[in-house]
Amino acid sequence: MDSPPDRLASRGDAVLQSTEELVSTLAKPTFTQSSRNLTTNTTAVEILSIGPNTSLTGVSQLMTSNVSVDIDLLGIARNNNGSASVVVIVYKRMHEVLNASHFKKEDSGATATMMSNVVSITLPNTHIKTLPQPINIRMKHLKNVSVQDKRWCVYWKVSSWIQDGCRVSATNSSHTTCSCDHLSTFALIMTVDDNLKSDPVMSILNTILVLIGLLFLTLAVMTFALCRWNPRVSNVARLNLCVCLLLAHSLFLLTQNFIRRIRAHQVLCSVLAGVLHFLFLSSFVWMFIEAVMLFLSVRKLRQVKPSERVWLQWKVTVPIGYGFALIIVGVSAGVNPEGHGSEKCWLVEGFKWSFLGPVCFLLVVNTILFVIILITIQSTLKGVRSDVSKVKYTRVLLFKLTVQFLILGCPWLLGMGAATSRVLEVLFLFLASQQGTAIFLIHCLLNTEVRCQYRKWWQRFGLSSKQPESGTGTGSGTGTGSISLTQQPSRDT
User: Fold this and answer.
1) How far apart are CA 144 and CA 140, in angstroms?
2) How far apart are CA 172 and CA 375, in angstroms?
3) I need a labelling partner for 100 at 20 to 30 A (CA). Which of 107, 238, 325, 350 fits?
4) Is the Cβ–Cβ distance between 310 and 297 less than 8 Å?
């Protein structure tokens, strides 16, 4: 037995068919052209017929009850011995029966609403109904809405509204024009993503944390670019990681704060989604490169001399850091051109694994490398004499390793369960946004050479009368890895 919504849809579909059959009988053949209109409490009808001797030129326009239709009736007539008729029926109450509940939304979290009257367009007494060019249907909204809300041009098929062959060609707050390559019964539906109605507290917290992270990312980029570094130190991975994170977080923050304005321009929304896809993927690749370099440094801890280089050359890391992400984004866009540009100007559902797949793989590898690094360092410290210097060194090292865990992006794995728990959501938001803070703290602020350089700049600009320290030290940034492991306490002899 049909459910109530199904029965309503069946009744509505029956009304559509009977009305079209009845109105089609009013279209009479003619040698020139003729038009008729009929208005009742529930429908508005406009009929246009042309014959071989018509004086009409160009595209024909029919207007009735706040709906206008542009159709190439002359082109249709040329395929039908010079004669053709078109009927436009506007149903004033049918949108309450064939409502938006019959529309299959792409996003289950969105709310759909009917935004126009239901409009049927038919070609009675016409054998070849192929359209020479798409028709344009301009419909007035049932209520004025923001231009940023998502609209869908749909047509009725058996028991549901679908959008194949129809698209929005123009829109404003009061009207929308649909372009369709076939004739049927049409309507306009608006969807609003309920997920976009975010918690204002979380939104403010997100903005504050991201801005703090961006500040320290900017300071880190300036430091890596302007400071004179020990020749044994390679900051290529860290500098590129900071640049990618800085651009990605900045663009993401701007996109989400102006999402409704950006979403009104689908091309711009898709482009931004593609750029974000590339920047975040590149960031994770650079995190992986940083993890590999740290692993190589720690593995050779006991054998490598202080002057020996163990890092990867920039000619190798730069193509890997950006090429891997570029290939994935390019292939993804080629396989599914409509995969970029969801309601949130990100990846559409079912396409997110083009991002999550590589990211999960890189994060798992980083986590494994980090565990190996911890085991290697622990075994190394066993040979160090147990005294006050070892205890102090161990505490500093543990702190640096904890922060390094954040720099390598391992906490991003928390994002998998962030949607299920507010605590996890806040923790993930904090850790993911503060990678720049961690990089600046470990590789800049706790680096003796960098602090000395800061003091020189401070004095140069007249901000301090204190002279910089004479020694440069070897600080936390003098090793080839992210953590200085060359200044260990003396070993037992």
Assistant:
1) 9
2) 62
3) 350
4) yes
pLDDT at 287: 93
Percent share of the chain, pLDDT over 70: 81
Any idea how long the chain is? 493
Looking at the chain, which residues constitute the CATH 2.60.220.50 domain(s)? Answer: 4-196
224-233 — which CB contacts under 8 Å span 24+ positions?
224/443, 224/444, 227/449, 227/450, 227/453, 228/453, 229/449, 229/477, 230/449, 230/474, 230/477, 230/478, 232/306, 232/307, 232/309, 232/478, 232/479, 232/480, 233/477, 233/478, 233/479, 233/480
Each residue's pLDDT tens digit, 403-453: 888 888 888 888 777 767 788 888 888 988 999 999 998 888 888 888 888
Per 3-state DSSP, the chain is made up of helix, strand and coil in percentages (nearest 5) of 50, 15, 35
DSSP code at position 411: G
- Report yes or no: 324 and 289 within 8 Å, Cβ to Cβ: no
For tokens 């749909």, name the residue: 154
Please tell me the predicted confidence (pLDDT) of residue 234. Answer: 74
* Token digits of residue 485: 């492991």
Domain with CATH 1.20.1070.10 in the chain: 200-445
Residue with tokens 């507010």: 422
Cβ atoms 348, 394 nearer than 8 A: no
**pLDDT at res. 231:** 66
Amino acid at 229: W
The per-residue pLDDT for range 254-269, each reduced to its tens digit, is: 998 888 778 767 788 8
Q: Which CATH class is domain 200-445?
A: mainly alpha
Give the single-character DSSP code of 181: S
Q: How far is CA 89 from CA 19, 163, 474, in A?
A: 9, 20, 82
The CATH number of the structural domain formed by 4-196 is 2.60.220.50
Q: Which residue, 128, 98, 111, is CA-closest to 15?
A: 98
Average pLDDT, the chain: 81
Q: In this structure, what DSSP letter does residue 149 have?
A: S
C-alpha span between 205 and 370 (Å, rounded): 30
